Amino acid sequence: MILTDFPGVLRPPAVTAAVSLGLALAQPAVAQPARNAPDSSAELVDRLMPTVVNITTTQNVPQQGPRLRDMPQLPPGSPFEELFKEFFDKRGGDEQKRRGTSLGSGFVIDAEGYIITNNHVIQGAEDITVIFRDDTQLKAKLIGSDSRIDVALLKVEPPNKRVLPAIKWGDSDKERVGDWVIAIGNPFGLGHSVTAGIISARGRSLNDSLDDYLQTDAAINKGNSGGPLFNSQGEVIGVNTAIYSPSGVNAGLAFSIPSNLVKQVADQLREFGRVKRGWVGVSYQSVTDDIADSFGLDRARGVLVANVVADGPAAKAGLKRNDIILSFAGQDVLDLRRFPRLVANARVGSTVDIMVWRGGKEVPLKLRIGEQEEDGKQNAAAKGSDKKSAEPDQPVVSTVEQLGLTLQKVTDQLREKYGLSDQVKGVVITKVAPNSPAAEKQLQAGDVILEVDQKPVTTPQEVADLVGKLQQAKKRSVLLFVERQGDPRFAALRLTK
After folding, report:
1. Catalytic site residues?
2. What does pTM read for this prediction?
3. Geometric angle at alpha carbon 132, from 131 and 134, rounded to 5°
4. Which residue of 124, 187, 426, 450 has the fewest CB atoms within a 10 Å radius of its CB?
5. CB-based contacts of 238: which residues, under 8 Å, 6+ apart?
6. Are 105 and 117 within 8 A, CB to CB?
7. Tens of pLDDT along 16-69?
């Protein structure tokens, strides 16, 4: 199987990861009347067709010129030998240029001439031409684009102050699986074409944690990229972007960017020429059942803060390591994948309410949203460490059989062996027993335990004592805060008898 963007760009199958500051989280659908399939969509299509455009782009594509080794083999003394040699000496190695052309779709969002398409449709283009249904052709200017969401905003100047027919935005959050949809675009460069189907799934993620695609079985092919997906009321609820197919053509699995997300991106591109994404300055991980139990939370939900960037928005708001973020900007944080979207979707400079679980109770906080850097490095874990003075190295080794761990206090020898920084203090894992609770959570030699049950530890004995106390209290699991090559995370290990 391959994922393909319609102009022919191939993308690998999705691999989900705990990153992404993505956007527009779909809300639970409110019960609504079923929308029956229309007897005909002809009248609706007639009204919508003029809002959809075909897009062609051209660019100079490098093409290697003739090379000397490509010269035909001629008999010695041939009258053509000098002629060919002179030609290849003069032209050989020169990089020639040819004009490359790509086709896509788009739609008018403003009567003044603003048009939405996909970023990959116009990427690298030197000339962009927009073709309307009546064959009017206008040169377009690129206002801005965003490669992560794959949206671009174009601007054309309507001739004779002509008012262009524009689409009406729909609320993609209200669309349900099973609702009827219509796609209009330029498949294979054939011109305006219409297909219909239903929304077959929501919240699909392909390559990026910002992804929140609507899935549809409406026939989508190369050239449809950037075209609109309409609901049965004629409102745009998505931008057709990718297909999942073994052959590169429609197989009934197409993906559209939700309109609520596209509209927000378009507004920012129009105002700033780029997209400003929210940033809070924390590293975080998912809350498992074991972690929820360790923190006294009723069930696995929210995200667990593993570290807080010094002087970042979260630190200024009072957010702390070991907090579990339950809600953000009035929306429940259901899982790790959706939290980055809520953050990135928040308006930079605004103040939002968050609710965290701390010390067995809910604590409300207010947080001012910062701006995410393009490279996304801001959300890396803070590398600060504890400020206690150094102590003489003591090669104390201890085994915590309940967890399957062999532990040793940090020494210069262990720093060198495992590549630990001079600032790291804690308890080093030197061996993990096979089939143990530690092995189940993929702990490994060289990991450094910083906390046990939210309490700092510096010696193997402290780890053993805390684990023993938890076992006496008949706890089912123990929460460890560990660091691996500067990357902190929590691990909830089951307690064996």
Report:
1. 120, 150, 225
2. 0.65
3. 120
4. 124
5. 172, 181, 214, 216, 228, 229, 256, 257, 258, 259, 262
6. yes
7. 222 223 333 334 444 555 566 667 889 999 999 999 999 999 876 555 555 544
